[in-house]
Amino acid sequence: MRLGGDSRVPKNGETSSRIDILRFPLIVGVVLIHNYSMTVQTDEGIIGSAHVGFWVDFVRLFVSEGIARTAVPLFFMISGYLFFRGGWSWGKYGSKLKRRINTLLIPFLFWNLATLGAYLFERRIPQARAYVYGSFWLPSNYSSFLSYINALFGITLKYPIAFQFWFIRDLMALVVLAPLVHFLLTPRTALPFLAALFCLWISGIWPFLYPSVDASFFFYLGAYLSRPEKEVEYLDKFGQWLSAAFLFCLILHSAFPFLPYLLKSVIIFGVPSVWWLTGLALRNCKLKSLLAGLSGASFFVFAAHEPLLNTIRKIAFKMLVPASGAAILALYFLIPICLITILVLTYRGLVKATPHFAGIITGNSNRPAGNRSEEH
Question: Which of 132, 180, 210, 314 would suit a FRET pair with 85, their CA atoms being 20 to 30 Å apart?
Fold first, then answer.
């Protein structure tokens, strides 16, 4: 998934390399978040079990509601960093705004229109209706042109119809608001405003539907870290201690998810810990090469994994009817692994067959698909 501004002007080569190898693992995290539930709703009722044992719940919470929850904050933070890195001018802002039509708006419209079309088509096939979820997607809900616009953008809703694209919608809003972010990055206002956003994020108090408080806080944090005097790798010296705190919070949250502020603590310690771990990954040539090679498919996996993930889950649960904790946990890992593998192979085939089309739908129409020199 491409992020932020222009990665052709990174603060240093290591920062750029870290971002490059981080994209795909973070997208895997997003898929795992959406794979959290142990039940599915079909025409035959609910299949699966919401409670199949402490350790099954623990593993799912540890992975989907723990480690994976660092993905979206890191995406927004990297986006803010890359967008503001290289200095500010109205000319640069105008140029970046125009590029976002290709890198954000066109893919957003394509995938939401494709999702809307798939839902409307699937609803006309009786055998497929069981695999379409949510009453919102019923054709009867589309009574006017504005209702379709609302479905595409989620104007009065929390999510657009391709719900994972709330990230891109919020990012587009933040890009438009970038001049305001810039003027709040002055030496006098930067830290007070960052502290205010942090308090709002912790409390969950936020008056706007979008951009969300998560998007706003971490995008601004990334913009703050892009300032020339800031050192992105500063916290690396505390990497081991931060990771120990991250692990402690992960275990505590996975065992007692009802305790307040634990998830926020996981994210607070998890974001710098994951960033530190990318520095360690760079030292392993094979791992670095593998993750860099998968990076190009990140946006396609992000865009195409839903509603496919939900449909595959329903088919698998309906065919296998898992009842034991071991069976549900096996599906919990196998379904996303199989789906991600299929999507990566599909993307590579698409790039070979129609590179221009692959570039358009992944926001990379100005260069060959898979070349990630410019990031969202």
Answer: 210
